[in-house]
C-alpha cells in the first residue's frame, strides 16, 4: 500500500472513526501510571481534550520550565496543554498534527486553558504538518529544546525521515522523549496493510533492533529506556491476527549529543544536586540510573554527557572529563537489544 494511502487511513481513523478513547479497539493507546503532579493539571483541562486522548505513556520529562517543546502528533492537545502548564508562561509549546479534526479540537480550547493557567497570552499553538517533514510546520533547524511524542511515531510511514527531522530541529544537547509502541520482531507486511491494526498503533510499530539501527545511522549512538510495558491488546480477534508478536509501550529518551556507541570509562563522577523542581530526592535518567540527591555516582562518558551537556547540566556536579580513558565502562555496552524483555536501556 502506498504511504500516502496509509497516511489517509490514519487521518480518517483519528479524524472520523474515533470519537473518543472509548472507541479504540485495543488497549495499545492507553496510559496507566500518571504522576500525581500531572493528574492535578489534567483535572484542570477541558473535557473534550481529555476524551480524545489516545496516548500510550507519559512522555514529559523533568526540568522543562521556560523551554521550547515540540509535540509530534499532538492530537486533541492533552499533552500539549499539560506541557503548557509545566513550561510556564515563558515557555513555548508547539503541537504538530496532520489531522484537521484533531487540530480543531486542540485549537478551540487555547483561550480557555490560557485563562485557567492564569497566563496573559497563550504559550501553546497547534500547527498543521507532517512529522516526516517538519518544514511543513515551519520548524527551523536547532530551534527546539525538547521533542515529545505520545503514541505517534509508530504511525509514521517513513520512520527514517521522521527521526531525521527530529534531530534536525533539536538544538545541540536537546532531548527527544517519547512514549511509543515497539515490537519484538519485524511486523509482516500483510499486517502493516491492515488499516485497523495500523490505526490502533500496532502494525506500524518498529522492531526495537531496527529502531536502534535507525538511531545509529543518524549518529545517535546511545539512547535510554525509562520503562517498558507489554501490551495485552484485549481484543481476541486482533490477538489472533498478531499471533506471537510482542508489542510494548516503551518510554525512551535520546539526546542530540556527540556520544559513543559503547559506554567508555573516563573516571567521571556525577552528583545530582536535588534542585530540579518537584524532584528533591532523586533524578531518574533511565531504568538503570537513579541518581540519589547528593550521592556521587561513577558514570560512563555517555551518561556524564547526558547530565552535563544538556539542560540537566545546572542540576548536576560532574567531575572529570574525557581526557583520560580507563577502558570500557565495566557494566556493559551500548544498546544491544536482543528482545524487548531484555531491554537494557541504552548502556551500562
Ligand atoms: C494515537 S494518536 C495520539 C495523539 C496524541 N499524541 C495523544 O496522546 O492523544 C496519533 C495522532 O498522530 C497524528 N499523526 C499520525 N501520523 C502523523 C503524521 N505522519 N504527521 C502528523 N501527525 C500524525 C494523528 O493525526 C493523531 O492525531
From TrEMBL:
Q: Which SUPFAM superfamilies match?
A: S-adenosyl-L-methionine-dependent methyltransferases (SSF53335)
- Is Transferase included in the keywords of this UniProt record? yes
Which stretches make up the Methyltransferase domain?
A: 66-215
Q: What keywords tag this UniProt record?
A: S-adenosyl-L-methionine, Transferase, Ubiquinone
* Protein name per the record: Arsenite methyltransferase
What organism does the record attribute this protein to? Hymenobacter artigasi
Instruction: Name the domain of life this protein comes from.
Output: Bacteria
As its record notes, the protein acts as a catalyst of: arsenic triglutathione + 2 [thioredoxin]-dithiol + 2 S-adenosyl-L-methionine + H2O = dimethylarsinous acid + 2 [thioredoxin]-disulfide + 3 glutathione + 2 S-adenosyl-L-homocysteine + 2 H(+); arsenic triglutathione + 3 [thioredoxin]-dithiol + 3 S-adenosyl-L-methionine = trimethylarsine + 3 [thioredoxin]-disulfide + 3 glutathione + 3 S-adenosyl-L-homocysteine + 3 H(+); arsenic triglutathione + [thioredoxin]-dithiol + S-adenosyl-L-methionine + 2 H2O = methylarsonous acid + [thioredoxin]-disulfide + 3 glutathione + S-adenosyl-L-homocysteine + H(+)
- EC number, UniProt record: 2.1.1.137
Q: Which family does it belong to?
A: Belongs to the methyltransferase superfamily. Arsenite methyltransferase family.
Q: Which residues form a coiled coil?
A: none
Question: InterPro entries per the record?
Answer: Arsenite_MeTrfase-like, Methyltranfer_dom, SAM-dependent_MTases_sf
Amino acid at each position: 500500500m502506498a504511504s500516502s494511502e496509509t497516511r489517509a487511513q490514519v487521518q480518517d481513523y483519528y479524524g472520523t472513526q474515533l470519537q473518543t478513547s472509548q472507541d479504540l479497539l485495543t488497549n495499545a493507546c492507553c496510559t496507566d501510571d500518571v504522576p500525581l503532579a500531572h493528574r492535578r493539571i489534567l483535572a484542570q483541562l477541558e473535557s473534550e481534550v481529555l476524551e480524545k486522548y489516545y496516548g500510550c505513556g507519559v512522555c514529559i520529562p523533568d526540568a522543562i520550565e521556560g523551554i521550547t517543546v515540540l509535540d509530534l502528533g499532538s492530537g486533541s492537545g492533552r499533552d500539549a496543554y499539560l506541557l503548557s502548564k509545566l513550561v510556564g508562561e515563558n515557555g513555548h509549546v508547539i503541537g504538530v498534527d496532520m489531522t484537521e479534526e484533531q487540530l480543531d479540537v486542540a485549537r478551540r480550547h487555547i483561550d480557555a486553558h490560557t485563562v485557567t493557567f492564569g497566563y496573559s497570552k497563550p504559550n501553546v499553538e497547534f500547527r498543521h504538518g507532517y512529522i516526516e517533514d517538519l518544514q511543513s510546520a515551519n520548524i527551523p533547524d536547532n530551534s527546539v529544546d525538547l521533542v515529545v511524542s505520545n503514541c505517534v511515531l509508530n504511525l509514521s510511514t517513513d520512520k527514517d525521515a521522521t527521526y531525521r527531522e527530529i534531530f534536525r530541529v533539536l538544538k545541540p544537547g536537546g532531548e527527544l522523549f517519547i512514549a511509543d509502541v515497539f515490537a519484538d520482531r519485524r511486523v509482516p507486511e500483510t499486517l502493516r496493510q491492515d488499516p485497523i491494526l495500523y490505526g490502533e498503533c500496532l502494525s506500524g510499530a518498529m522492531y526495537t533492533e531496527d529502531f536502534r539501527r535507525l538511531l545509529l545511522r543518524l549518529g545517535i549512538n546511545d539512547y535510554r529506556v525509562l520503562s517498558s510495558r507489554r501490551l495485552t491488546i484485549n481484543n481476541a480477534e486482533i490477538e489472533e491476527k498478531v499471533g506471537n508478536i510482542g508489542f510494548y509501550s516503551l518510554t525512551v529518551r535520546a539526546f542530540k549529543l556527540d556520544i559513543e556507541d559503547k559506554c567508555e570509562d573516563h573516571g567521571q563522577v556525577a552528583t545530582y544536586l536535588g534542585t530540579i523542581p518537584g524532584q528533591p530526592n532523586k533524578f531518574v535518567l533511565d531504568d538503570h540510573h537513579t541518581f540519589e540527591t547528593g550521592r556521587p555516582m561513577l558514570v560512563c562518558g555517555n551518561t556524564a554527557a547526558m547530565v552535563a551537556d544538556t539542560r540537566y547540566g545546572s542540576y548536576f556536579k560532574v567531575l572529570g572529563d574525557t581526557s583520560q580513558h580507563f577502558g570500557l565502562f565495566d557494566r556493559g555496552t551500548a544498546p544491544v537489544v536482543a528482545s524487548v524483555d531484555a531491554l537494557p536501556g541504552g548502556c551500562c
